[in-house]
Amino acid sequence: MTSIQHNLQEVRQRIAAAASRCGRDPQEITLLAVSKTKPASAVAEALQAGQIAFGENYVQEGVDKIQALADEQPEWHFIGPLQSNKSRLVAENFAWCHTVDRLRIATRLNDQRPAHLPPLNVLIQVNISDENSKSGIMLEALPELAQAVAALPHLRLRGLMAIPAPEKEYQRQLAVCQKMADALASLKQHYPFVDTLSLGMSDDLEAAIAAGSTMVRIGTAIFGARDYGTTPPQQ
Protein backbone atom coordinates (compact mmCIF):
# COMPACT_ATOMS: atom_id res chain seq x y z
CA MET A 1 0.00 0.00 0.00
CA THR A 2 1.39 3.42 -0.97
CA SER A 3 1.45 6.32 1.46
CA ILE A 4 -1.24 8.20 -0.49
CA GLN A 5 -3.42 5.09 -0.60
CA HIS A 6 -2.93 4.65 3.15
CA ASN A 7 -3.68 8.32 3.84
CA LEU A 8 -6.85 8.20 1.75
CA GLN A 9 -8.00 5.15 3.68
CA GLU A 10 -7.44 6.96 6.98
CA VAL A 11 -9.27 10.11 5.83
CA ARG A 12 -12.21 8.05 4.57
CA GLN A 13 -12.37 6.26 7.92
CA ARG A 14 -12.40 9.61 9.69
CA ILE A 15 -15.25 10.83 7.48
CA ALA A 16 -17.19 7.63 8.09
CA ALA A 17 -16.70 7.90 11.85
CA ALA A 18 -17.82 11.55 11.89
CA ALA A 19 -20.89 10.69 9.80
CA SER A 20 -21.75 7.75 12.04
CA ARG A 21 -21.65 9.90 15.17
CA CYS A 22 -24.34 12.21 13.83
CA GLY A 23 -26.45 9.55 12.12
CA ARG A 24 -25.48 10.41 8.54
CA ASP A 25 -24.64 8.11 5.65
CA PRO A 26 -20.93 8.53 4.73
CA GLN A 27 -21.96 8.14 1.09
CA GLU A 28 -23.61 11.58 1.35
CA ILE A 29 -20.20 13.18 1.81
CA THR A 30 -17.78 13.68 -1.09
CA LEU A 31 -14.07 13.71 -0.34
CA LEU A 32 -12.36 16.39 -2.41
CA ALA A 33 -8.61 15.72 -2.50
CA VAL A 34 -6.83 19.08 -2.63
CA SER A 35 -3.85 18.51 -4.88
CA LYS A 36 -2.41 22.02 -5.16
CA THR A 37 1.41 22.13 -5.48
CA LYS A 38 1.47 18.35 -5.90
CA PRO A 39 2.61 16.72 -9.18
CA ALA A 40 0.31 14.92 -11.59
CA SER A 41 1.96 11.69 -10.49
CA ALA A 42 0.55 12.14 -6.98
CA VAL A 43 -2.92 12.67 -8.41
CA ALA A 44 -2.47 9.54 -10.54
CA GLU A 45 -1.55 7.61 -7.41
CA ALA A 46 -4.70 8.81 -5.68
CA LEU A 47 -6.76 7.88 -8.73
CA GLN A 48 -5.40 4.36 -8.54
CA ALA A 49 -6.57 4.28 -4.92
CA GLY A 50 -10.12 5.09 -6.00
CA GLN A 51 -10.18 8.86 -5.48
CA ILE A 52 -12.16 10.70 -8.16
CA ALA A 53 -12.59 14.39 -7.22
CA PHE A 54 -9.61 16.74 -6.99
CA GLY A 55 -9.40 20.41 -6.01
CA GLU A 56 -6.92 22.91 -7.43
CA ASN A 57 -6.26 26.44 -6.15
CA TYR A 58 -4.08 27.74 -8.96
CA VAL A 59 -5.52 27.92 -12.46
CA GLN A 60 -2.49 27.23 -14.63
CA GLU A 61 -1.15 24.50 -12.35
CA GLY A 62 -4.56 22.85 -12.43
CA VAL A 63 -4.84 23.06 -16.20
CA ASP A 64 -1.41 21.46 -16.60
CA LYS A 65 -2.54 18.48 -14.49
CA ILE A 66 -5.88 18.26 -16.29
CA GLN A 67 -4.03 17.97 -19.59
CA ALA A 68 -1.50 15.49 -18.21
CA LEU A 69 -4.26 13.23 -16.84
CA ALA A 70 -6.86 13.70 -19.57
CA ASP A 71 -7.08 9.96 -20.23
CA GLU A 72 -7.83 9.23 -16.56
CA GLN A 73 -10.85 11.58 -16.47
CA PRO A 74 -10.87 12.66 -12.81
CA GLU A 75 -13.40 15.27 -11.70
CA TRP A 76 -11.68 18.65 -11.38
CA HIS A 77 -12.82 21.38 -8.99
CA PHE A 78 -11.40 24.89 -8.95
CA ILE A 79 -11.33 26.05 -5.32
CA GLY A 80 -9.03 29.10 -5.31
CA PRO A 81 -9.65 32.83 -5.73
CA LEU A 82 -10.48 33.47 -9.36
CA GLN A 83 -9.10 36.46 -11.25
CA SER A 84 -11.11 37.71 -14.21
CA ASN A 85 -8.24 37.14 -16.64
CA LYS A 86 -8.15 33.43 -15.73
CA SER A 87 -11.88 32.74 -15.89
CA ARG A 88 -11.74 31.31 -19.42
CA LEU A 89 -9.29 28.58 -18.36
CA VAL A 90 -11.62 27.55 -15.54
CA ALA A 91 -14.68 27.65 -17.80
CA GLU A 92 -12.97 25.51 -20.43
CA ASN A 93 -11.24 22.94 -18.21
CA PHE A 94 -12.95 22.40 -14.86
CA ALA A 95 -16.20 20.65 -13.93
CA TRP A 96 -16.76 22.76 -10.81
CA CYS A 97 -15.92 26.23 -9.52
CA HIS A 98 -16.32 26.73 -5.76
CA THR A 99 -15.39 30.40 -5.55
CA VAL A 100 -18.04 32.47 -7.32
CA ASP A 101 -18.49 35.59 -5.20
CA ARG A 102 -19.54 38.27 -7.69
CA LEU A 103 -21.79 38.48 -10.71
CA ARG A 104 -19.01 39.63 -13.03
CA ILE A 105 -17.09 36.37 -12.53
CA ALA A 106 -20.25 34.28 -12.88
CA THR A 107 -21.14 36.03 -16.13
CA ARG A 108 -17.65 35.52 -17.55
CA LEU A 109 -17.71 31.82 -16.65
CA ASN A 110 -21.13 31.47 -18.25
CA ASP A 111 -20.12 33.25 -21.45
CA GLN A 112 -16.84 31.33 -21.71
CA ARG A 113 -18.20 27.84 -21.01
CA PRO A 114 -17.84 25.84 -24.26
CA ALA A 115 -21.16 24.79 -25.77
CA HIS A 116 -20.12 21.14 -26.07
CA LEU A 117 -19.57 20.83 -22.30
CA PRO A 118 -22.30 20.43 -19.69
CA PRO A 119 -23.03 23.49 -17.54
CA LEU A 120 -20.26 24.40 -15.11
CA ASN A 121 -21.22 23.42 -11.56
CA VAL A 122 -20.75 26.47 -9.35
CA LEU A 123 -20.81 27.20 -5.65
CA ILE A 124 -21.21 30.66 -4.20
CA GLN A 125 -18.46 31.41 -1.70
CA VAL A 126 -19.65 32.96 1.56
CA ASN A 127 -17.33 34.87 3.88
CA ILE A 128 -18.99 33.31 6.89
CA SER A 129 -16.47 34.62 9.45
CA ASP A 130 -16.44 38.17 8.01
CA GLU A 131 -12.68 38.17 7.48
CA ASN A 132 -11.14 40.98 5.46
CA SER A 133 -8.48 38.60 4.14
CA LYS A 134 -11.00 36.08 2.79
CA SER A 135 -12.92 36.06 -0.47
CA GLY A 136 -16.66 35.53 -0.47
CA ILE A 137 -19.86 37.49 -0.05
CA MET A 138 -21.71 38.35 3.12
CA LEU A 139 -24.79 36.24 3.84
CA GLU A 140 -27.14 39.18 3.30
CA ALA A 141 -25.91 39.47 -0.31
CA LEU A 142 -26.55 35.79 -1.06
CA PRO A 143 -30.18 35.93 -2.31
CA GLU A 144 -29.43 38.52 -5.00
CA LEU A 145 -26.31 36.77 -6.30
CA ALA A 146 -27.95 33.33 -6.20
CA GLN A 147 -30.87 34.60 -8.27
CA ALA A 148 -28.51 36.01 -10.89
CA VAL A 149 -26.31 32.92 -11.04
CA ALA A 150 -29.27 30.53 -11.25
CA ALA A 151 -30.48 32.38 -14.36
CA LEU A 152 -27.24 31.85 -16.31
CA PRO A 153 -27.77 29.00 -18.81
CA HIS A 154 -24.22 27.63 -18.92
CA LEU A 155 -23.83 27.49 -15.15
CA ARG A 156 -25.51 25.14 -12.70
CA LEU A 157 -25.89 26.54 -9.20
CA ARG A 158 -25.14 23.65 -6.87
CA GLY A 159 -24.78 25.33 -3.48
CA LEU A 160 -22.38 27.10 -1.16
CA MET A 161 -18.75 27.04 -0.07
CA ALA A 162 -17.00 28.62 2.90
CA ILE A 163 -13.61 28.69 4.62
CA PRO A 164 -14.40 29.55 8.25
CA ALA A 165 -11.82 31.28 10.40
CA PRO A 166 -9.76 28.75 12.40
CA GLU A 167 -11.35 27.75 15.71
CA LYS A 168 -9.85 25.21 18.10
CA GLU A 169 -13.02 24.60 20.11
CA TYR A 170 -15.46 22.14 18.54
CA GLN A 171 -18.61 23.95 19.65
CA ARG A 172 -17.40 27.21 18.08
CA GLN A 173 -16.58 25.34 14.86
CA LEU A 174 -20.03 23.77 14.90
CA ALA A 175 -21.78 27.10 15.41
CA VAL A 176 -20.13 28.62 12.34
CA CYS A 177 -20.74 25.51 10.25
CA GLN A 178 -24.39 25.51 11.30
CA LYS A 179 -24.76 29.06 9.96
CA MET A 180 -23.65 27.76 6.56
CA ALA A 181 -26.02 24.79 6.77
CA ASP A 182 -28.89 27.16 7.59
CA ALA A 183 -27.95 29.34 4.61
CA LEU A 184 -28.02 26.30 2.32
CA ALA A 185 -31.40 25.21 3.68
CA SER A 186 -32.77 28.70 2.99
CA LEU A 187 -31.34 28.61 -0.54
CA LYS A 188 -32.94 25.21 -1.20
CA GLN A 189 -36.38 26.68 -0.48
CA HIS A 190 -36.01 28.83 -3.59
CA TYR A 191 -33.83 26.49 -5.67
CA PRO A 192 -34.73 22.85 -4.91
CA PHE A 193 -31.91 21.58 -7.16
CA VAL A 194 -29.25 23.01 -4.83
CA ASP A 195 -27.54 20.08 -3.12
CA THR A 196 -23.96 20.90 -2.14
CA LEU A 197 -22.29 22.42 0.92
CA SER A 198 -18.52 22.52 0.45
CA LEU A 199 -17.38 22.96 4.03
CA GLY A 200 -14.76 21.41 6.25
CA MET A 201 -11.02 20.79 6.09
CA SER A 202 -8.64 18.78 8.23
CA ASP A 203 -9.10 20.84 11.41
CA ASP A 204 -12.90 21.17 11.37
CA LEU A 205 -14.03 18.14 9.37
CA GLU A 206 -16.08 16.63 12.22
CA ALA A 207 -17.98 19.84 12.95
CA ALA A 208 -18.67 20.43 9.25
CA ILE A 209 -20.08 16.94 8.80
CA ALA A 210 -22.21 17.26 11.95
CA ALA A 211 -23.67 20.49 10.54
CA GLY A 212 -24.47 18.90 7.18
CA SER A 213 -21.50 19.40 4.88
CA THR A 214 -21.73 17.29 1.72
CA MET A 215 -18.16 17.91 0.52
CA VAL A 216 -14.97 18.17 2.59
CA ARG A 217 -11.69 19.49 1.20
CA ILE A 218 -8.61 17.62 2.42
CA GLY A 219 -5.06 18.14 1.15
CA THR A 220 -2.09 17.65 3.46
CA ALA A 221 -3.60 14.63 5.24
CA ILE A 222 -3.70 12.87 1.85
CA PHE A 223 -0.67 14.15 -0.04
CA GLY A 224 1.64 15.29 2.76
CA ALA A 225 3.06 18.75 3.43
CA ARG A 226 2.92 21.15 0.53
CA ASP A 227 6.12 22.35 -1.10
CA TYR A 228 5.77 25.90 -2.36
CA GLY A 229 9.46 26.14 -3.24
CA THR A 230 11.06 29.55 -3.46
CA THR A 231 8.23 31.20 -5.42
CA PRO A 232 4.46 30.87 -5.02
CA PRO A 233 2.59 28.89 -7.69
CA GLN A 234 1.06 30.82 -10.55
CA GLN A 235 -2.60 31.65 -10.26
UniProtKB/TrEMBL annotation:
Span of domain Alanine racemase N-terminal: 7-226
SUPFAM superfamilies: PLP-binding barrel (SSF51419)
Pfam name, any one: Ala_racemase_N
Modified residues (N6-(pyridoxal phosphate)lysine): K36
Gene3D superfamilies: Alanine racemase
Gene Ontology molecular function: any one: pyridoxal phosphate binding
Cofactor(s) of this protein: pyridoxal 5'-phosphate
InterPro entries to which the protein is assigned, alphabetical: Ala_racemase_N, PLP-binding_barrel, PyrdxlP_homeostasis
Keywords from the named record: Pyridoxal phosphate
Keyword Acetylation in annotation: no
Record-stated family: Belongs to the pyridoxal phosphate-binding protein YggS/PROSC family.
Quaternary state and interactors: Monomer.
Free-text function comment from the UniProt entry: Pyridoxal 5'-phosphate (PLP)-binding protein, which is involved in PLP homeostasis.
Protein name, UniProt field: Pyridoxal phosphate homeostasis protein
Originating organism: Mixta theicola
